Amino acid sequence: MKIGTRARYTLRFMIALGRLSSKGEPVGLGEVSRSSGISRRYLDHLVVPLKSASLIRAKAGRAGGYVLARPADDIRLGDIIEAAIGPIAVTECAVDPEACIAAEFCDCRELWMLINRRITAVLNDYTLADMLSETWLARVQHELRKADHEPELARI
Amino acid sequence: MKIGTRARYTLRFMIALGRLSSKGEPVGLGEVSRSSGISRRYLDHLVVPLKSASLIRAKAGRAGGYVLARPADDIRLGDIIEAAIGPIAVTECAVDPEACIAAEFCDCRELWMLINRRITAVLNDYTLADMLSETWLARVQHELRKADHEPELARI
DNA sequence: CAAAATCCTATGAAACCACTAGGATTTATC
DNA sequence: GATAAATCCTAGTGGTTTCATAGGATTTTG
Question: Do A118 and B114 touch (CB under 8 A)?
């Protein structure tokens, strides 16, 4: 039930890239490394699946680097996470009904499916642009309060 | 982002126990093993944290076994899962604000918190009694359709 | 006492994760 | 065309966690 550093760092990378490449100029991994605190060598890895998924574009050679392949508001957080670690599937059976070997014993499948949906719902509701915007924090904190059933508890 | 067999088997164990011990008689692990398809030896392990969390009670010796320590409608699914694998925390920082070392770089904490809340919300909304009831499947499938924004798609 | 159960400790195999490393290739600039 | 700066490709390692089995000690009831 953990989200590993792979997914977390990948998201942080995309946020950093979104900030640094706003002018459309390629950004080198060295610069991203400095501004995100992720080791240059590790970034090398994170970048591969993002490229395969066409979320970023690379320009090789001197003065090369990476750019977002699409506008940030067209990149859902789920796209990023799935590129990093594959499809969201808290269990096999949550995603593939056939994968449930113990169907005769086990009534848990719909529960795992429900949890899976709740996670993907969050990830699909927000885009990279949302996380880059000024109002991001306020928006999520508002959502958090709704979940809490604690309406209107100002914290600023 | 996986829910391991530990948590899944523990839940299945509790469901099986709930069914078998409805009369308040202790149920042996041998019987649970047969009816749940989980190896007797492995059940031995799953049972320990459930007992520590006072979700089940053991009666040792001949004709001993386990019983639910409370009525099933007083046992939330979250209680079971947390007993099995500890607090739900998709990331450290989602649960402990201090755990975020990279706060200066990273704006992801509220996102992980939100996902964490969505998961615990499901787990706290339902009880073991819900999963034991006849209407369980229909209820969850209804929830799933709501999430889909596919209102009223009958499937029976 | 003996059977049937819980209870305790250990261990091994496998998978997964985080990260490092070396070096090949590409390409803009001089 | 050489060079520097970047991407790109392939390995591999150390550590942790997880899944599961096993042996045997202890408890308690018939």
Answer: no
- From the list A17, A14, A5, the residue with the least C-alpha distance to A127 is A14
Q: Which comes out higher in pLDDT, residue B98 or B10?
A: B10
Inspect the interface and report whether the beta carbons of A37 and B105 lie closer than 8 Å: yes
The tokens describing B37, both together, are 């398809």
Domains (ranges, CATH) in chain A?
1-86 (1.10.10.10), 87-125 (no CATH)
Q: Are residues A116 and A88 in contact, defined by beta-carbon separation less than 8 angstroms?
A: yes
Quote the mean pLDDT of chain B.
89
Q: What tens digit of pLDDT does each residue of B53-85 get?
A: 999 999 988 889 999 999 999 999 999 999 999
Partners of residue B121 in chain A, C-beta under 8 Å: 118, 147
Q: What is the pTM of this model?
A: 0.91
